Amino acid sequence: MGVGTNLKRLRSKTKFSQQEIADMLGLDRNTYTNWENETTDIKSQYIPKLAEIFQVSILDLFEAGKNESSYHNLENADLKDNAIGQKDFQQGIIINITDSEAAKIISSQLKELIKSLKK
Description:
It is a single chain. The protein is mainly α. It has a single domain (3-118), classed as 434 Repressor (Amino-terminal Domain) (Orthogonal Bundle). The protein contains 7 helices and no strands. It has helices at residues 3-14, 18-25, 29-36, 47-54, 58-62, 74-77, 100-118. Helix 2 (18-25) crosses helix 3. The protein is globular, with a radius of gyration of 14 Å. It starts with a helix and ends with a helix.
């Protein structure tokens, strides 16, 4: 199961339309549709935003056959209604990880880092 299938499944669970997701991302609906159909790759800058919209971890967007976790990014809880935190994503690092094991390790390490910074 690819990321497009995961996007379709998550969108179905949230009852959002493709147009609504595209609007939240500031994209044309066709761009989002192409991601779901896996005809084009998702640009890495949109991955954190998609995870936020569906309230899953970034890893959940890419893993096959997993139930979505109820993980809600700690930073997301601090966001006020500002178009899914676009301001908060203007600075930072975008990491495009295609290896599932590497993604698990980095995700785990980032969660621990965020916890330690919040203390």
